[in-house]
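Q: Could you predict the 3D structure of Peptidase M23-like protein?
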Amino acid sequence: MTRAALKFIVSTLMALQAFGVISIAQADPPQLVHPVDCVLGETCFIQNYVDHDPSPDYADFSCGPLSYDGHKGTDFALPSLEVMMSGVSVLAAAPGVVSGVRDGMPDQEFNEQNAATVQGRDCGNGVAIDHGDGWVTQYCHMKQDSVAVTLGQRVTTGETLGQVGLSGRTQFPHLHISLRQNERVVDPFRPDPKTTNCAPSPQTLWKSPTKYVPGGLIQVAFAPGIPQFKTIKSGMAAHPKLPAQAKALVLFAYGFGSRAGDSVILEIIGPQGNVLTHTEILEKTQAQYFRASGRRTPMGGWLPGVYHGKVEVLRDGVALDSGAATVLIQ
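A: Sure. Here are the predicted structure tokens for Peptidase M23-like protein:
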């Protein structure tokens, strides 16, 4: 075939495509694996999804509140700073070529005092991977000095990119992963922007089915008093053992995705039966929250033995999640 003939064929195809007579097939979007080495619902959870509401309000793909205005990715969160410090790997969700890398930013909660150091670098430490045909995944908030790949490196699905961290504009340890095609944000849970109902999407870009969880418990544990929220988030609030003369016996529940009207029922059962049953009605929708209830130590101290704590979260009168914990008093 002569060069002139080839040029004629190409120009004809382009003209036909422009008039909608034919379409040139694009490469299929990448099929993604979960980008964190954890078990959803056990050692990690999804805190936020892509914001599908174009107004100043926000909504995730199921019309729920697990997002915030302008959020462009999916947040895979860890239960505590302690877990983050132990090292949790970030994995390549699909094969491709590393097209961007940043490391060296400190792990710290974003606040007014450090806002200037984060300006323009909201993603923190991170990696971008080019999957071809304009498809790119971006991985944000990775741990300082953990990035394990270099610019131009080809990576395979599941290859370690680094570790989950707390760098950039964030207030809890998590991996933010975003998917884009030619700079257009694509939600892997609902990749077709034309589907706008609140039901689960029949098409996703996840290789393994990922059930939408509208909220639940992160931790249930005992403490000798009502702990501070920062102590709970650090992972250092739980006490598996307490002395009989501890100041108090407190059960706390740490959760995510609350909605106004949710009920949190806390119950403590000791060697001689019920110690406490308390119900809290949550007044507002929150990304994360905690509730606690307990009893001051009685005269003479607590009876030695194992005490059981139970927590149940109800939404519209239906069980949303439950958890349990024990403490040994001696």
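Q: Anything worth pointing out?
A: Residues 3-18 form the longest helix (16 residues).
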